[in-house]
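Researcher: Quick one. two chains, 233 residues in total.
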Amino acid sequence: GAVVSQHPSRVICKSGTSVKIECRSLDFQATTMFWYRQFPKKSLMLMATSNEGSKATYEQGVEKDKFLINHASLTLSTLTVTSAHPEDSSFYICSALSAGKTDTQYFGPGTRLTVL
Amino acid sequence: AQTVTQSQPEMSVQEAETVTLSCTYDTSENNYYLFWYKQPPSRQMILVIRQEAYKQQNATENRFSVNFQKAAKSFSLKISDSQLGDTAMYFCAFMKRGGGSNYKLTFGKGTLLTVNP
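Model:
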């Protein structure tokens, strides 16, 4: 149990375009999901907390208008990188919270974004 | 605010041997969780083990066990009978117990473990 999928696994886009990444909890409901960014050989950096049916909470320094988050259902959160630039190239990881009994974040496999 | 420190950036171990990864943390909270996640070369974050702070008994999961010392704020991970598939970056993480923003994870910088044949 506790499987989280993320799609796409890799995406290459041109500068100025937008890219949407989906995160799904496959076998549990997640009212809370998280979006992280990870640089090579570094730890995970939390970008935002996504709550079902409400606005996302962004960490300090993360541009809300550039990284749009939507959590429309209990199993799906999306991250849209708008007007992407080469500096947005990174590895993006989502997690879904299994709350209550375990209070544990389960992670998706990540998305490698390359902006040309 | 919480901090998590992993003082060993890299470690190596021979296959079938035992290795211990260190983690210390700082918090004023009394009710929290501690986790070890592994990130192999595929970069998929995998939960290894979870410890609830109110439980004195150390958590175990097959070859993985922890030494949780609450007073010392120490949470080390022991891997027994190391296997090649254990090669990964290991992250120690802290989560305050409760709802809302308390579900955030605070990660250490990670320890890169290499298991040698």
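The CA atoms of residues 5 and 108 of chain B lie 5 Å apart.
Researcher: Thanks, that's what I needed.
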